[in-house]
Amino acid sequence: MSGVNTVIVHYHELALKGRNRDSFEQQLVGNIRLALKGLGIKQIDNLRSRIRVVLPPQADTAAVTDRLKRVCGIANFSLAHAVPLDLSHPGLDQLSAAVVEELRATSCSTFRVTARRADKRFPFNSMDVERAVGAAVCVGTGKRVSLKDPDLTVYVELLTKEAYFSVEKIPGPGGMPVGVSGTVACLISGGIDSPVAAYRMIKRGCRAAFVHFSGRPLVSRASEDKVRELVQTLTAYLYGARLYVIPFGEIQREIVLNTPAPFRVVLYRRMMVRIAEELARREGCWGLVTGDSLGQVASQTPENLSVVEEAAELPILRPLIGMDKVEIVDEARRLGTYETSIEPDQDCCKLFTPAHPSTKTRFDELRKAERALDITALVKQGLDKAERSEFTFPI
Ligand SMILES: Nc1ncnc2c1ncn2[C@@H]1O[C@H](COP(=O)(O)OP(=O)(O)OP(=O)(O)O)[C@@H](O)[C@H]1O
């Protein structure tokens, strides 16, 4: 689309009241600024109910679009043409002429105009604008109006001194701007589910710190490399993130040597949760996030989820608990994490996996088994070996 010089961003306003609304908007404007870093954009304005991004001449609109599609809190946005608005002249000639010129260059045969006013004090209402611009397009291009099923919709926004029009609304992720819901610690495994779980929380406005347990030194760094790639992908939604990698192989060996085989999987998980919780507190997180989905594997039965839960004081958030695998896979594909997640690795959870893991672990049995372990020393061992790295966006 030629002549595009502005992006108009919309967010869902329902349930936004008072101070919530101010902080939501401020955060969203700040996040848009971070997301568009390096693209030469200087002016981003918070207007009533929408945000305006002024594009410099020769802006890379494909890159702007690609980045804005990942800004949580955006319901939709459009690449628009700005036209000066003269309120003393109700004919809207300048706007109509610009729309006619734009539509002449398109092959559509039917169209409709959908207008919105930011300011109800205008001397005309939305329908007047739709009629005036629509009539000009019919005369100027020979195209026909179809209100029900148009080939193309022209969206017009009227602000106080300018009108904006565009021919496409591009969906954003929806949700809330990252930063309005505190920080959570996401346990990320390198599999399909945990990056999707992290994203679900990011989309509800959380910043994220990531924690990965690798089977090192008993296995290679393959899972760590995958996790780094996954965190980098998610950083496009977060703008900055921190990852802790904990070599977990020795701790697993302790568990294997000292406890009954059927409890291993749950005991690994309880140790992970304890170590992650310490890191979460350091990072100021209010919850732990896992990719558990009910009944998917042995560690995700109601009984086993409950005994893992008990090892943590912070809430364990499981945003995928009620999702089917196909739904999770679809979301991973949309997110761009799926291809990385399916690369082969040696996940630490597959180390010494028992042939018959307990699926209905009882608290009393488990506590008895754990008495054979020096939990405090093992948590310390994990924390002492944790390796921290930082991720930024754009890279
Ligand atoms: N090595 C690990 N490091 C960090 N978190 C882990 C690790 N293994 C498991 N988890 C956490 O526990 C959750 C459940 O893991 P599990 O292996 O039982 O199921 P999964 O369906 O294979 O999950 P995923 O697809 O995320 O690997 C994961 O989603 C993740 O949040």
From TrEMBL:
Pathway: Cofactor biosynthesis; thiamine diphosphate biosynthesis. Gene3D superfamilies: 3.30.2130.30, HUPs (3.40.50.620). The keyword Thylakoid does not apply. The keyword DNA-binding does not apply. Its EC number is 2.8.1.4. It comes from the Bacteria. GO terms for biological process: thiamine biosynthetic process; thiamine diphosphate biosynthetic process; thiazole biosynthetic process; tRNA 4-thiouridine biosynthesis. GO terms for molecular function: ATP binding; CCA tRNA nucleotidyltransferase activity; tRNA binding; tRNA-uracil-4 sulfurtransferase activity. GO terms for cellular component: cytosol. It is found in: Cytoplasm. It catalyses: [ThiS sulfur-carrier protein]-C-terminal Gly-Gly-AMP + S-sulfanyl-L-cysteinyl-[cysteine desulfurase] + AH2 = [ThiS sulfur-carrier protein]-C-terminal-Gly-aminoethanethioate + L-cysteinyl-[cysteine desulfurase] + A + AMP + 2 H(+); [ThiI sulfur-carrier protein]-S-sulfanyl-L-cysteine + a uridine in tRNA + 2 reduced [2Fe-2S]-[ferredoxin] + ATP + H(+) = [ThiI sulfur-carrier protein]-L-cysteine + a 4-thiouridine in tRNA + 2 oxidized [2Fe-2S]-[ferredoxin] + AMP + diphosphate. Keywords: ATP-binding, Cytoplasm, Nucleotide-binding, RNA-binding, Thiamine biosynthesis, Transferase, tRNA-binding. Residues 62-169 form the THUMP domain. ATP binds at L187, I188, H212, F213, R269, G291, Q300. Belongs to the ThiI family. Catalyzes the ATP-dependent transfer of a sulfur to tRNA to produce 4-thiouridine in position 8 of tRNAs, which functions as a near-UV photosensor. Also catalyzes the transfer of sulfur to the sulfur carrier protein ThiS, forming ThiS-thiocarboxylate. This is a step in the synthesis of thiazole, in the thiamine biosynthesis pathway. The sulfur is donated as persulfide by IscS. This is Probable tRNA sulfurtransferase. It comes from Nitrospira moscoviensis. The gene is thiI.
